[in-house]
Amino acid sequence: MFGDINVVKFWIIVLSLLLFSAVAKAKIVGIPCASCHTMHYSQNGTILQEWGSSGPYKALVINDCIGCHTGTNNGSNTTPYIFSSSAPNYGETGTEAGTNTLAGGNFYWVVNGSSWVTDADRTGHNVEGLANVDQTLGTTPPGGTDLGHQLTCAGKYGCHGDRNIEGDFEALLGAHHADDSVIDGSTVGKSYRFLKGIVGYEDSDWEYQPDAFHHNQYKGVDRASETDINTSTISYLCAECHGDFHNGDDVSFGSWGSPWLRHPTDYDMSHTPSGSEYRQYPGQYGSTGQYSVIAPVASEDVSQPKSTVSFSKDTIVTCISCHRAHGTPYKYILRWNYYGWPVQTSVNGCNACHTAKD
Ligand code: HEC
Ligand code: HEC
Ligand code: HEC
Ligand code: HEC
Ligand code: HEC
User: Measuring CA to CA, which residue among 178, 154, 180, 149 is closest to residue 166?
Assistant: First the structure.
């Protein structure tokens, strides 16, 4: 009798493996619908403990975006967790052994505060449903115009999904089930991390303890001028709200180059003199020419992660060379303890590129 059950189990495993390989990189296959959906938001006359308590939710899911994406990453979780209810281990840069945050960081600190920063608001994007409205910035992104509404995960007031559509689920509908074996930015599902229009290479575990060989490969472009805009880069995503810091308002003075007025992004380090400090990237954080997850650089070609760089359209400075998108324990969502160096930390990612300034 138990033998029969084992045979059945065997075939279920074989069939689901086949299913997985047939649709190689397609999203969510072979997982029971019921682990994510509820048809009536009711079972045995009540709701299940594993469901969110403020439903029913749109698209008949069992929780909202934050609910499903709350947890502790351990390297084998199949849902990326971007909010943890107990303090995550960020280490110094969110990349070392023992850390358990992902590429975007974690919203823990903007909700609970951090030992490094007195004002919790500074440590992350104040997303609705998680954090209060930013007491200093309100709903206005520095370098941009007031959104008139608190930040949301997705849609018109958020980063993910279609930013022309209002509502987290409305803006994302279908994305979780979309085949994303090709990331071309044409739909939400086929965009880098459901950021509509943005492209890039997606690391399979969302940069859980990344290294030079295992990481996202961010899209950047080697721009010719401040107004030269490519809408598929990760810096352009940020610029959709923080535009002045990327294009259009005094990034460079006259020509596109040093001396700068604001830190350049979507600018390739190939434009620096061959003997300059930049050519030693990543300085003390790796051997020369190695990709650094401490201060990542973007590239025009994002077909695969690069372990080394050649200073030719693959050493592009991006907003997230210095910041993370969700949150970090540090001021202004910086990747490392910029304000703590050199007294409280020896790690200052600025030195990955400014190698002669350490
Ligand atoms: C791992 C979680 C997960 C599983 C398993 C899952 N879904 Fe979904 N599904 C979602 C989420 C999240 C959404 C809403 C956001 C979106 O559409 O991206 C969704 C949206 C949908 C939608 C509306 C959008 C669309 O694509 O038309 C349908 C229909 C749907 N799911 C059906 C199913 C069915 C049927 C199954 C089982 C065969 C299933 N889902 C399994 C997470 C899941
Ligand atoms: C029912 C649970 C559930 C809900 C609700 C849900 N997600 Fe997800 N989400 C998942 C799972 C599971 C994955 C991993 C699936 C995968 O990447 O194959 C995922 C993956 C993602 C990813 C990463 C995609 C990638 O390219 O790796 C993003 C971004 C995301 N979700 C955003 C959202 C947003 C925004 C919402 C709210 C509109 C939302 N999710 C609602 C379960 C959920
Ligand atoms: C949908 C609009 C939007 C997008 C896209 C966006 N931001 Fe923001 N950002 C805001 C708003 C609004 C604030 C101010 C309120 C807050 O911090 O929540 C802000 C604040 C910030 C701050 C200051 C944090 C603080 O509180 O002092 C940084 C740093 C930042 N954003 C970086 C980024 C980066 C990097 C990206 C791209 C990965 C990005 N933002 C994308 C809207 C956006
Ligand atoms: C990913 C590489 C990278 C990182 C990380 C980085 N920079 Fe830069 N930085 C550059 C490049 C490239 C330039 C432009 C150099 C040029 O055009 O000659 C630049 C320009 C500058 C300039 C203006 C120089 C000028 O000639 O006008 C300053 C100041 C500066 N960076 C400071 C910093 C600080 C402080 C940090 C850390 C918060 C930092 N940078 C992090 C690559 C980087
Ligand atoms: C070279 C590292 C670096 C890069 C690249 C970078 N930032 Fe920053 N950012 C910083 C630092 C450091 C601060 C702290 C304030 C300062 O030094 O001006 C900061 C502050 C901010 C703030 C808060 C400003 C305020 O008024 O409180 C926002 C918003 C921001 N950055 C967004 C961006 C966006 C968007 C991009 C890309 C277009 C970007 N940053 C690129 C290092 C960087």
Answer: 154
**Phi and psi of 135, rounded to 5°?**
-70, -25
Any atom of ligand 2 within 6 Å of the Cβ of 151: no
pLDDT in tens, 226-242: 999 999 999 999 999 99
Selection from 346, 215, 207 nearest residue 285 by Cα: 346
Cα 91 to Cα 111: distance, rounded to the nearest angstrom: 19
Q: How far is the C-alpha of 355 from the C-alpha of 286, rounded, in Å?
A: 11
pTM, whole model, 2 decimals? 0.95
Is ligand 4 within 6 A of the CB of residue 322? Answer: yes
CA distance between the termini of the chain: 69
Please, are residues 219 and 266 in contact by the beta-carbon 8 Å criterion?
no
Distance, CA 119 to ligand 2 centroid (Å)? Answer: 29
Ligand 1 centroid – CA 177 distance (Å): 6
Ligand 1 pocket check: which of 23, 35, 37 to mutate, most ligand atoms within 8 Å of Cβ?
A: 37
pLDDT value for 15: 44
CA-closest residue to ligand 4 atom 31: 263
Angle ∠(315,296,224) on CA atoms, nearest 5: 35
Is the CB of 173 within 6 Å of ligand 1? yes
Pocket test for ligand 1, best of 61, 79, 153, 176 (most atoms within 8 A of CB): 176
Q: Tens digits of per-residue pLDDT, 292-347? A: 999 999 999 999 999 999 999 999 999 999 999 999 999 999 999 999 999 999 99
Chain position carrying tokens 């004002």: 119
User: For 44, left (φ over 0), alpha (ψ -120 to 50), or beta?
Assistant: left
Minimum CA distance residue for ligand 2 atom 3: 68
